[in-house]
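Researcher: Quick test of sequence recovery. Tokens follow.
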């Protein structure tokens, strides 16, 4: 398969086919608009419910990575639950506040 170019709507659709996301947020240089052609794609995927042995953060992240493997770009994918995002949103020592402040919501379940 040929490597795919970046199409955020296709990326979102690929993510949604694999995981039950409540929200997907683009953050980092691509959200701020100061990215370069070689900049990575930073995504925060927020899911409902707690992680468990059957539905672990690692497995959810792996499903997303596999769905996006043909896109020729480096990716940083963070997967958190709504509860975790609410817990960390006011922390000064966590990535979540940065994601929420500078991020652009690409998908939100209605």
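Model:
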């Amino acid at each position: 398969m040929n490597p795919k170019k970046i199409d955020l709507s296709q990326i979102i659709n690929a993510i949604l086919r694999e995981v039950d996301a409540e929200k997907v947020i683009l953050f980092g240089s691509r959200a701020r608009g100061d990215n370069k052609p070689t900049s990575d794609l930073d995504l925060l995927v927020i899911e409902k419910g707690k992680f468990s042995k059957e539905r672990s953060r690692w497995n959810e992240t792996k499903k997303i990575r596999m769905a996006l493997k043909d896109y020729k770009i480096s990716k940083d994918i963070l997967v958190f639950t709504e509860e975790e995002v609410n817990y960390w949103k006011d922390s000064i020592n966590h990535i979540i506040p940065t994601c929420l402040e500078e991020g652009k919501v690409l998908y939100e379940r209605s």
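Strands lie at 21-27, 41-47, 75-81, 104-108.
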